[in-house]
What does this fold into?
Amino acid sequence: MFEFLRRDLLLILLMVAVFSCLSYAIGHLSKRTPSTNEIQTNFLGGEHTPRAQSHADRVWREASIQKALSLDATLLSTPTIMRSDHEGNIYVLDWADFRIKMFSPDGSLLKVFGQGKGTDTAAFLNPTSFSVSAKEELWVSDPPQRKITHFSPGGKVDLVPTHREAWRIASVRNKLITMAVPERNAAFEVYDAGEYSKSFGELLEDQSETGLVLDGNIVGDSDNQGFIYGGRLVGVIAGYTEEGKRRFAVQTIDWIPPPKIVTIGQGKKVKQNSPRAVLSMSILGNELYVLSGTRDYDATSSGRRVMDVYDKRNGDYLFSFKLPVACTEAIVRENYIYILGDGAVSVLRFNASTLTRS
It folds into this structure.
């Protein structure tokens, strides 16, 4: 009997020793620093490569700009994203209450969209972009809910389910263009009458692996029945038709090549301290106004104050001018420039016809 007990005890001790060794090994492995690797990002070659600008340096012009007013801070606590309609009204996402607020150019609050934070109809969970159509329809992308919320001018609210998570959105006539993290050759998607239609847009080699660097924004171009993409992390502006045909792809006047992708274990991220190319875009007539992310840094602000102007029809660089203050977003309209900076939205009086060569 004692012999059996001794055998059982030895077996138990042996099992404990084995499990202890395995536990140590597993713990040791889990504490090891995950392997890291840097992946170089490259554009497609040949005719797909964004062409360089004919200008090597900026052409400066002087602008007559005066501050008119700031939007009421009691009505707008944490402004995050701005858009404007063809009448010059300004729409601002207020992160403090998860609502989009519509103001007239004189600062009057006209309308409020949304029901705050939540998953119900007209509520937002994490709105990342919105667009105002020529018919004053408001479309809001909300990636975690995989939906687009549509507010009609009459107040009706509809939900459009998305094919993939839509992080950026632009309205073009009766269609919506969205942008998600690219898969293979599809950076953009089209929704026609609320239904997913197609995907398109290949800019990079191994785009499914390196598409993170294509983070940026899109703006509708109704005249050309399409939209324009501007890269936040890479100095590229590209124009497309609503059917997916690329009209042009050009380098910005400050060419920023694609940053590297850093892989950490199974995860990926863009290499830290990568410069910013395009902070915001807006269209007025045949001109595309781009807030540069690389020039005139104000040490007291995270914003910039150089506005670069391109021909929206072919992407050719035209000229640049300076804003009186640094900002993170700027929208140019017929008589105004709206700027977002230092937690406030300001209205500047401006007339494009007054731009003169310096």
Observations:
- Residues 1-32 form one domain.
- Helices lie at 2-30, 207-210.
- The mean pLDDT is 85.
